[in-house]
Specification:
This protein is α/β, with parallel strands linked by helices. It has helices at residues 50-59, 71-74, 80-98, 128-137, 151-159, 190-201, and strands at residues 22-25, 63-69, 104-108, 145-148, 163-167, 185-187. It binds zinc ion. Its main location: cytoplasm.
Amino acid sequence: MALSARLPALRARQSRRPWAPALFLDKDGTLVEDVPYNVDPARLRFMPGAGRTLARLSSAGFALVMITNQSGIGRGLFTRDAFDRLEQALRQRLRESDGVELDGVLLCPHLPNDAGAPACHCRKPAAGLLLQAATQLKLDLTRSWMVGDTLDDVEAGHRAGCRSLLFDCGGETVWRMSPLREPDHRVRQWSELEALLLAQGGPPQASPAAGPRSD
Ligand SMILES: [Zn+2]
């Protein structure tokens, strides 16, 4: 399936320890402002403090993996090539502004079904992309976190065996709750996320026993 086309992008940095924890991050409304179906690099706006926080978490040993639903491809609103150009611009901006290198970017290009649920294994709230990244980058899911601005992000993280943070800045509007959709924590800015992960996620050599679910 189309996922295989993403394999070359998944190259762990040589400095990364095997079985490191990851921060899986959503793109729209979390890493960057949500501009629906945008693939224009000129309209890319990072959330305040995101780059700086990612730099610190990377230094602390977290792999950084962006996981994004891009149904605009399946809807025919933009092409995979257009998204790839946006991804390159996003990576370059992070590199130049904060010295951050993303370890991986994985996307689901598919449409949901008529009920709005995933019709594939990769669209969040399904966990397929997190599991794929974990296998290919040798990540420790039990010490990893997912952060996103919707409960679908929270659920995807939990389905993958991670802890999940809701970036609670207005992205979620439906609030359809279930145990899998209950965030471990809510944050409203990237600086809060940094403190939380460094305190609870621990450095990569921390015991897997560290960081129990907090609520
Ligand atoms: Zn998919």
